[in-house]
Specification:
Helices cover 0% and strands 51% of the residues. The chain is mainly beta.
């Protein structure tokens, strides 16, 4: 059974940094497409950053140059380093594994989310 557990969220002032972690159990990590999504109150969920099956990374335009996605395949952990945070980065952040297509397509497995609040 595949489980994703996020951690690292919290409250931070604008300009600060946070690092999110997502521990992935099971076999959905090593060779699959993985990503971070977020959802702000009253808004649709949006893709933040993803790692494709070939290892290439993708970012939403709104976070390019500020966020970095990475994975530790030995430990089955997905990271999202978030720097220069802005108030508009506030939202619930979810990790996802095993996309049905590219990093912005649907995923078979999702975490429960971790809240990020930037004031």
């Amino acid at each position: 059974d595949v489980q994703l557990v996020e951690s690292g969220g919290g409250s931070v002032q604008a300009g600060g940094s946070l690092r999110l972690s997502c521990v992935v159990s099971g076999d959905a990590f090593t060779s699959s497409c993985v990503a971070w999504f977020r959802q702000a109150p009253g808004k649709e969920r949006e893709g933040v950053a993803g790692i494709e099956r070939d290892g290439s990374t993708n970012y939403a335009d709104s976070v390019k140059g500020r966020f970095t996605i990475s994975r530790d395949s030995d430990k089955n952990i997905l990271y999202l380093q978030m720097d220069s945070l802005k108030s508009e980065d506030t939202g619930m952040y979810y990790c996802a594994a095993d996309s049905t297509g590219t990093w912005l397509d649907d995923y078979n497995f999702w975490g429960q989310g971790t809240q990020v609040t930037v004031s």
